[in-house]
Amino acid sequence: MPFVLDELKLYFTLADDVFSSVPRLLSKAREGSSLYSACNAVGRAYLMGKTRSAKAVSEGARAYGNALSTLRSAIGDRKECRSDNTLLAIWFLSMFEVFLGASDPSVRADGTPGWKSHNQVLTHLVSLRGSEIFASLNGRRLFTIIFSNVLAHALVPSHDFSDCPTWFIKFHQHCQPSEYPMLRAHIYTYQCARIISRILRLIDVGDVDEILSCSWSILQEINQVEKATYPFSSEEPVTKYEVEPLTAPYTCPDHTYPGYIGIQITHTVFRMRLSHHALWLLDYASRAPSSASNPPIPMSERLVRHQYDLTESAHHLSSHHIPAVYKAPIEPL
Known about the structure:
Fun_TF; DHMBA_Reg_Transcription_Factor; 67% helix
């Protein structure tokens, strides 16, 4: 497991204030518990990727099966299913799928049934816990850790995002003003994911007329996504933390808040995802036959330029703030 934590050190560096609760929870994990078993499985997956030996694969499969068994027991227990340890254990098993994908280039970690199942359970358990998970700082940090997984799982056609606004309101009720930038980032990524899901639904259904009639309104939503603050009004203090257009030239601010770089990279990643899907939609729409009611929609050169600018923004963030040791390529053993 120490090797796994070393592999994840970039996360700890970019969002130390968020991930600081993880070592504390790990240090208290009892042998045989769901969290202990999940960590063992992730450690085995790491070794599978490094050694690729038959023994490592066998031990990894055994550890994963044991972790699933202990998690089923924990989820079936009325107390354990609401514990931070259980949530973190499921998050670590989703990381098992990531390491599994890293060891086999033909496997997409976010496309495996296991990865999808883990994040589906995470969504259910967060909703099950209600306000309780947001009542403590560690609970809110844990929510932040798993929220990106939940949103990534939600990037499918017609996903139900109805839980997200409720989560944000409960987060806001309990958090300190110093946590507003993180909550604002959650709101922004949710807005991006919601639009992406709508685009995927249109493409999945394949109704050309609907795609043509909806494309302009979707583009307008994308143009305003940095200003979207639902479920909060523009008068709420949390909305004062504006999401800057990421195509603006990057300048390192004189003063930053805790987790600033992690939040900025999160903004960039989700905006890139949104721009990518917008280009996909426009490409699909541009191939459709035009009519008087639905004139052709040209491919947007601005969106293509936008994608390049976002990539450049992410590069500047990493160049200015990530220590060189983390940017060095990792050579396979």
